[in-house]
Amino acid sequence: xxxxxxxxxxxxxxxxxxxxxxxxxxxxxxxxxxxxxxxxxxxxxxxxxxxxxxxxxxxxxxxxxxxxxxxxxxxxxxxxxxxxxxxxxxxxxxxxxxxxxxxxxxxxxxxxxxxxxx
Length: 118
Hints:
Blueprint: H1 3-22, H2 30-42, H3 51-66, E1 72-77, E2 83-87, H4 96-113
Antiparallel strand pairs: 1-2
Helix pairs in contact: 1-4, 2-3
């Protein structure tokens, strides 16, 4: 099985699992899954977030997802428990489709590590 085919199958399985768990079966999009990862990484799953906090959660998720690729490194938790990352390497200029594939791959790897998918 090619790497692209395997990624596509894993992505679809993951979207199905998360959509059934968090959106009554309506497919979650990439941004929604990134948001969920941010909430998971923050560890405060049962609370409401303000708009700016939601953006910060997505930033946390992106940093965490791209950390294994060498773009970010965990730095510290602030007094409120929010994780902070520092930039290790600037992201290369990617086309929209390339960004999407990179993020999907990083998300699939994140959930493989957590044994949510195989």
